[in-house]
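Quick one, probably user error.
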């Protein structure tokens, strides 16, 4: 059993096991890293006070916005090309590294030179050089992570990510005890990030020997051509992400914003799930796209089924118990956000599969072709918000965003389905059936006045056994990977 677990979690054996292993480690990494940083946030907010922590947060947030000019998809292209062209992996690693250095230098100039021109918060400017260092260190560490992802060694990334989080916590706690100022808190973050980068360099040392000697000038243009659609998609996605909130701020009230963002918070947490699954399958999809189309199709179908296995019960539960969930999270004062919350729960059925299909687009190298649909979605979002917010307020903003996402993602979904030939509905028939049963049970429990926590617990306990009884293919595939093979 020990050997089976070791093989399951620390080696790449089969396609399904490797994807499952990578998803597990990315999930653990993100969860632990976020939990560790929450400790710093809570303690720093208490020690520095609202004003001091506000200065630190604003400096990080304003500088973080500038990363849109350095995060142009270089890492994604490195992963894709290294997997598809292993004989040129050293050349791609070296060339993308130098491009990344130039982008990080540009980021530093923007942070130190531009933010002071628009900043109105006292105390922020002295933090900016340190914040620039933090983001450069984080950018280099993230570049290292793309190497591990191309090798499908997400367990290494997870270990370094957790180590970095712990290093930041230790440094921050010491600083907050001896030198409790926003500036020295930023220094503590920089120290933790530096230690994380050192760990990354050490873990990748065998792959970095040729980093300085394999720069290939001829690859610069193809890399930039491949990345510019990703950069634009990222920028348009950022605009689409904030369109509803910004337009609601212009056309609504502060109370509207509070109700809207409260309903939106759970969604922002949940969309991490398909992002992690997508990151785990990208190397495999990139490897299979030109070598084994049937396996490419099968992996895409399986990934879509897995995310729908998660999205369908969450969306159904969220819609049925929306009033109780909002009351539990925020209290009776936020009852007006229930309808908005239902729309956001419904949108999970678009964003979850859309994220996975997006990875297929990258693996196929067709991001430039589909950019126009993302732009169309963003423009549709603006137009619908302008029309629906005056009519329906916060419900109109949520509906506009959902319809815009549905339009853009729907077109991309059907285009990729035509290209690859994958089928989703036949793969999730049993999942839909199990979700319907869960929905009926939840409605019954709600009518009986059963406590929401108890209802959620019952639904969670019943869902997996239902899928097992129904012999859902996704559960069968997971069982074949997780359970050790019996000796003949």
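Nope, works fine. Designed sequence:
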């Amino acid at each position: 059993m020990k050997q089976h677990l070791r093989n399951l979690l620390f080696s790449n054996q089969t396609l399904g096991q490797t994807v499952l292993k990578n998803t597990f480690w990315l999930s653990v990494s993100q969860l632990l890293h976020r939990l560790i940083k929450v400790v710093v946030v809570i303690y720093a907010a208490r020690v520095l006070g609202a004003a001091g922590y506000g200065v630190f947060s604003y400096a990080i947030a304003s500088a973080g916005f500038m990363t849109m000019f350095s995060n142009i998809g270089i890492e994604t292209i490195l992963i894709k090309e290294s997997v598809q062209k292993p004989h040129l992996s050293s050349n791609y690693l070296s060339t993308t590294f130098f491009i990344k250095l130039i982008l990080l230098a540009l980021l530093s100039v923007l942070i130190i030179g531009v933010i002071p021109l628009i900043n109105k918060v006292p105390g922020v400017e002295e933090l900016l050089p340190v914040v620039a260092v933090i983001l450069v260190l984080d950018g280099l560490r993230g570049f290292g992570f793309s190497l591990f992802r191309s090798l499908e060694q997400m367990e290494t990334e997870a270990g370094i990510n957790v180590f970095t989080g712990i290093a930041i916590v230790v440094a921050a706690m010491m600083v907050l005890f001896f030198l409790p100022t926003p500036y020295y808190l930023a220094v503590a973050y920089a120290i933790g990030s530096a230690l994380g980068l050192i760990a990354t360099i050490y873990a990748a040392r065998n792959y970095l020997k040729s980093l300085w000697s394999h720069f290939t000038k001829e690859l610069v243009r193809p890399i930039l051509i491949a990345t510019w659609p990703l950069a634009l998609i990222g920028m348009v996605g950022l605009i689409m992400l904030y369109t509803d909130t910004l337009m609601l701020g212009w056309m609504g009230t502060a109370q509207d914003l509070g109700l809207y963002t409260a309903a939106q918070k759970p969604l922002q947490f949940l969309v991490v799930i398909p992002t992690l699954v997508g990151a785990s399958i990208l190397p495999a999809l990139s490897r299979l796209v030109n070598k084994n189309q049937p396996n490419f199709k099968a992996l895409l179908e399986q990934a879509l089924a897995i995310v729908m296995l998660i999205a369908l019960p969450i969306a159904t539960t969220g819609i049925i118990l929306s009033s109780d969930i909002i009351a539990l999270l925020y209290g009776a004062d936020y009852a007006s956000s229930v309808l908005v919350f239902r729309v956001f729960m419904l949108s999970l059925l678009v964003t979850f599969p859309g994220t996975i299909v997006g990875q297929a687009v990258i693996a196929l190298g067709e991001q430039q072709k589909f950019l126009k649909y993302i732009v169309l979605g963003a423009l549709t979002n603006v137009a619908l918000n302008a029309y629906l917010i005056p009519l329906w307020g916060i419900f109109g903003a949520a509906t506009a965003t959902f319809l815009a996402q549905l339009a853009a993602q729907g077109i991309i979904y059907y285009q990729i389905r035509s290209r690859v030939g994958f089928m989703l509905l036949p793969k999730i028939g049993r999942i839909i059936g199990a979700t319907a049963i869960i929905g009926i049970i939840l409605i019954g429990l709600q009518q009986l006045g059963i406590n929401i926590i108890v209802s959620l617990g019952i639904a969670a306990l019943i869902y997996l056994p239902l899928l097992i009884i129904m012999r859902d293919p996704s559960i069968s595939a997971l069982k074949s990977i997780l359970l050790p093979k019996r000796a003949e």
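The chain has two domains: 2-215, 228-482.
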